[in-house]
Amino acid sequence: MRQLFAFIASLALVGCATGPVSLPVENLAASAQTPVEDLRPKDEGTREIFSLLITSDSYGYARLAQDRTDPTGPRLFAHRLQEKYGAGSVPPTKLLHFAVYLNNRAELKSAALGAAFGGIIGAAITSGMVVREGDTVHTMVDAASFASLAGENEYKRALYTDAELKAGTSAFVIFIESESQGQRRFTRTVSPIKPTQEGQKIPLHQALDAAIHFHLNP
After folding, report:
1. What is the pTM of this model?
2. Whole-angstrom Cα distance, residue 114 to residue 85?
3. How far, in whole angstroms, is CA 155 from its chain's centroid?
4. Cβ neighbours, 10 Å, residue 217
5. CA distances (Å), 167 to each of 48, 187, 206, in order?
6. Main-chain dihedrals φ then ψ at residue 97, nearest 5 degrees
7. How many domains does the chain have?
8. How far apart are CA 120 and CA 19, in angstroms?
9. Which of 13, 59, 71, 137 might form a disulfide with 164, Cβ 3.0–4.6 angstroms?
C-alpha cells in the first residue's frame, strides 16, 4: 500500500488526480493562430497507467494525459514555435508525436532491476547522439524503434539508460516528432523529477520546456 500510495502521489503532483495544473506562460494569446496541425495518434494524449500489479514488468510507468496541464504540451509547443519566429511568419508545421511518460518505477521496485532492464531498451530507441543540459538528457529518436514499442510494449518508451540518469531516478520522458518545410525531427528528452524551490517551475513544466526547446533548436 505504501508503494502504491507513492505512485499515486506522484501522479497527483502533475495533476492527474486534482485537475489541470496551470503553467505560467507569458503572452500565450500571441500564438493562438500558429499553424500547427496536430496529427498525433488519438490515444497519445490520453492517460494510461500501464500496470498496478507490482510483479508486472510495466509496473511503475505511465503515459500522462495532455489535459493535465494548461496549456497542454502541444499548445506550449505551438507557443514556443511562434516565439522562435517572433513577428515573422511561422511555416506550417505538422505535430506527429508529443507523448509524455512518467518513469516512477524506482520508488516501487528495486533500483537494480529497473536500471538493468531500462538500460537495454533505452539505448535501443535512440539514434546514439546524447546532448546534456545539466541533469536533463536529450537524444534523437529512431522512428522505427519507437513505433515498435506500441501496445503491450509501450511502457518501454518510459525507460532510460544508466548512462543517462542515475539508477533509481524518477523522471519524465518526452517524445516529440514534427515536420516542417519538408524536414522531420524526432527527439526524446529525459528530465529527472527533483524538488523545486519557491518561484521555480514545477518539474513537469521544466521538462516540457526543455524538450520543446531542444526539439525546436537543432
Report:
1. 0.87
2. 41
3. 12
4. 8
5. 24, 22, 21
6. -145, 140
7. 1
8. 35
9. 137
Q: Are strands 21-22 and 69-70 parallel, antiparallel or unpaired?
A: parallel
DSSP annotation string for 113-135 = HHHHHHHHHHHHHEEEEEEEETT
Report residue 101: phi and psi, to 5°: -115, 150
Q: Check if the beta carbon of residue 168 is closer than 8 Å to that of residue 111.
A: yes
Distances (CA, A) of 175 to 2, 9, 126: 30, 24, 11
Residue-number span of the structural domain to which 142 is assigned: 2-216
More confident residue, 80 or 17: 80
Q: Which amino acid is at 64?
A: L
**What confidence tens digit (pLDDT) does each residue in 92-128 have?**
999 999 999 999 886 655 443 444 444 445 555 666 6
Contact status, residue 121 vs residue 155, Cβ threshold 8 Å: no
Peptide bond preceding 71 in cis form (omega within 30 of 0): yes
The C-alpha cell at 9 is 502521489
| Measured distance CA(190)–CA(136) in Å, rounded | 6
Residue with cell 510494449: 153
3-class DSSP state of 187: strand
